[in-house]
Amino acid sequence: MKKLAKNMMLCMQPVPQTIVSCRDKDGNNNALVVGFAANVSLDPVMVMVGIVPTRHSHHMVKESGSFVINLPRKDFQKEYSYLGSKSGRDEDKFAVFGIKWENAKYVNAPILTDCPVSIECSVVDSIMPGTHELFIGKVEAVHVDEEYLDDNGNILWDKMDLM
Ligand SMILES: Cc1cc2nc3c(=O)[nH]c(=O)nc-3n(C[C@H](O)[C@H](O)[C@H](O)COP(=O)(O)O)c2cc1C
Fold first, then answer.
1. pTM of the entire predicted model
2. If you measure from the C-alpha of residue 99 to the centroid of ligand 1, how many angstroms do you get, rounded to a whole number?
């Protein structure tokens, strides 16, 4: 028999494990852990990330109209924990933790090169239904480490040791 849970927060499980990277108008890079992330459209391909306005990354996504969703492997746990607990407001997270990055190809944001999948997004809309601003992003490109792509460009999800 089912009973009612007292705490309804995060009742949708599993929560995705992603790292969203972004850049401010002065060219400073940052990244944060985001569990509020989902696919929202197949055609055009769109995704969404939810970011609390008090996060340092929030104004960066607003300013640039861009973000990248990076999917980490299990061996990125230390970096994941760091990016999800420290704020770019207090330190340059990329410099302090030696996070490797390169410029995205189509949007104004960095890509985390040690993550096997990085999804470049342009913000097309946002809504604020509650605690998180939900940024809807049009997917401009999906970068995948070549060992995880078959000859037709399909992503071999089962081969990746994603977190
Ligand atoms: C597992 C996990 C999931 C998280 N999910 C979110 C999220 O969906 N949205 C958000 O704004 N913050 C989320 N956070 C918190 C931010 O990653 C964290 O506050 C980070 O330090 C903010 O960095 P910033 O101030 O440099 O942007 C999550 C943290 C963890 C550990």
1. 0.98
2. 17
